[in-house]
């Protein structure tokens, strides 16, 4: 098996990816294209859900030393690049990759699987998810090395992530009749960590809060005991709270 073989498998049988086990919001993605070009390099497989959530897949043979050292950073670079795109940028690159000069092949492929998709709602959601970096990043290989798994666990421990990351082992067995048997399993996945963001005009002070009680919100309890005034951007990493000026 080669990395190209794994790409072909993902493109032809997206249901072989255990997406729902990693993040149910990304269930039933539609395969769009392989080798989608970005300034950070080509994405092996690009898929998208009917709700406009992008799925990026990087395929690696784990006997390849690069698969152990660089694959996580590589797929994060792709995500960082896509976060600068709009739905129009993505549609343009998909059209170039599929060699389609007319129409919107991205939307057409999604509608072929889900005819009920509304064009305006899909494009708006896709643009919003791109800008927020709301992706599912999948690293798929024939075997996962402990070093890469440790990197994924490190990412899981850090706040501020807007994407889900999953490590998927996809061993492929050739049966006596020549057919292939795929047995995917999830080895590691990140948890989504949402940050509360409070925006105030620059130079504006935040009033002292009352002492929280049993009726207080989680945000109020987290703010209590922190600095009562904000004269500029500041961040509290311990409670994943960011206060920024605008």
TrEMBL record:
Protein name (Swiss-Prot/TrEMBL): Restriction endonuclease type IV Mrr domain-containing protein
Q: Which organism is it from?
A: Devosia albogilva
- The organism's place on the tree of life at top rank: Bacteria
């Amino acid at each position: 098996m080669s990395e190209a073989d794994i790409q072909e498998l993902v493109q032809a049988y997206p249901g072989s990816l255990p997406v729902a086990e990693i993040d149910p919001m990304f269930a039933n993605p539609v395969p769009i294209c392989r080798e989608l070009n970005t300034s950070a390099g080509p994405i092996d497989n690009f898929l998208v859900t009917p709700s406009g959530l992008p799925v990026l897949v990087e395929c690696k043979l784990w006997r390849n030393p690069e698969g152990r050292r660089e694959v996580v950073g590589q797929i994060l670079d792709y995500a960082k690049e896509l976060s600068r795109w709009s739905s129009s940028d993505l549609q343009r690159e998909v059209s170039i990759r599929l060699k389609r000069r007319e129409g919107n092949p991205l939307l057409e492929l999604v509608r072929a699987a889900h005819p009920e998709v509304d064009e305006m709602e899909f494009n708006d959601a896709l643009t919003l998810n791109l800008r927020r970096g709301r992706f599912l990043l999948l690293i798929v290989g024939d075997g996962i090395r402990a070093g890469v798994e440790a990197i994924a666990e490190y990412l899981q421990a850090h706040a501020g992530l807007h994407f889900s990351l999953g490590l998927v082992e996809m061993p492929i067995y050739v049966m006596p009749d020549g057919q292939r048997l795929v047995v995917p399993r999830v080895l590691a996945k990140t948890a989504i960590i949402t940050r509360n963001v409070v925006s105030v005009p620059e130079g504006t002070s935040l009033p002292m809060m009352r002492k929280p009680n049993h009726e207080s919100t989680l945000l109020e309890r987290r703010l209590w005991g922190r600095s009562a005034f904000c004269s500029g951007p500041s961040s509290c990493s311990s409670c994943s709270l960011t206060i920024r000026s605008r």
